[in-house]
Amino acid sequence: MSITVTKIPMSSEQFTRLAQIIYDRSGIHFPEPKKYILESRLSHRLQELEITDFDQYIAYLTMGPYQMDEFQEMFNRITINETSFFRNEAQLNVFEHQILPEILEARASTKRLRIWSAACSTGEEPFTIAMLIHRTLGIRLNDWHIEILGTDISEKALNVANSGTYTSYALRSTPQLMKSKYFTESGREFQLSETIRSMVNFERHNLKDRLAAKRHGVWDVIFCRNVLIYFDDEMKKGVVSMFNNQLADDGTLFIGHSERIKDLTDDFEQLPIPQGFCYKKSGKSSNA
Fold first, then answer.
1. pTM
2. Helices (H), 49-170
3. pLDDT tens-digit profile of 3-35?
4. Would you state the CATH architecture of domain 89-281?
C-alpha cells in the first residue's frame, strides 16, 4: 500500500535557516535554486513526525532531545549516495599501475601503506582500493601492514559498508573476474569476501572536523572523489587544507573528474597524467 505524500511548502526564510543548519553541521551548501530538493525530500519526514510546517521541524532539529539523531535522518534523505565498485575505471588504473607501484617502492623499508577514502558513502570505493592492492601484492600482502580507512558523515551509509552486502547495481562497473573472485552471490545480493572486508575499517567523520582527521595521522594516499562539488569555496579550501596537512610529502590526492582545486589553493600541483585527476603537494603551503 503506497503512502500519499503531500508536499509541505517551505518559505524562503525557512529554507535559509535550514540550509544554514545543514552547512554549519556538514559543510554542504544548498543554494536557493535547490530549495525544491529540501522541500520535496523532507515533506514525507515531516508527515512521519506529525509536524505540520518547517518552523516546527527546524525547532525539532535544533532544540529537541533527538536533534543529532534527526540530523542524521534528515541528512540521509537529502543526500544521494551515488557510487559503485570500480567507479571511473580509468582513474583507478592510474592508481593501480602508476601511483601504487611508486608508493610501494617508497615504503619498501617500512612495508606500511596508509590510504584514506574520505566521504566513502556505502564503502564501494575503499573496498575497490583494497581489491586492487590485493591483486597487486598477491602473496606479498602478508609482508605488508595495510591500513585503509573509509569515512563518511552518514551512519546509514556506513552500516551498509560494514555489512559488506550489496545489490547488483552497486557492482554494475565491476569486471567479471573481480566479481567472481571477491563476491558470493546470494539471491539478489552479493556478499563481499572476508579477505577484502578485513582490509578496510570504517568510521563516521565530518569533513569539517579537522581535529578528528589529525588524530589519524599522515596518509600515503587520500581519495576524495565527487564530494567537493557539494561545497562552497570556503568549505572546499578548508577541506583541501586539511588534506594537505594529513597527506605525506610524497603522497597523492585523488579527486573527482569534474572537480578542480587549482584556483582554490597553492598546496597542490596536478600530476600530468591523463584521466588521473591526482595531485601532489607543492611544498608552497605555510600550514603546520
1. 0.90
2. 54-63, 67-78, 89-94, 100-106, 124-137, 155-163
3. 556 889 999 999 999 999 999 999 999 999 999
4. 3-Layer(aba) Sandwich (3.40)
